[in-house]
Amino acid sequence: MGLERVEGVVIRTRDLGEADRIVSLYTRERGKVRAVARGARRPRNRFASLAQVPIHGRFGVFQGKGLGTLSQGELITSFKTIRTDLVRTAYALLLAELYDHMMEEGEPAPELFRLLLSTLHVIDGSKHADLTKLFMAFELKFLLLMGYGLELDRCVKCGNEDGLIKWISSKQGGLICEECLPGSIGAVEAAPGTIQVMRRLLRSDYRLVAALHVSDSDCRIIKDVLRDSLEAQLSSPLKSLDFLESMISGEASKNNAGRSADGDHPGSNR
Question: Is the pLDDT of residue 258 over 80?
Answer without folding.
Answer: no
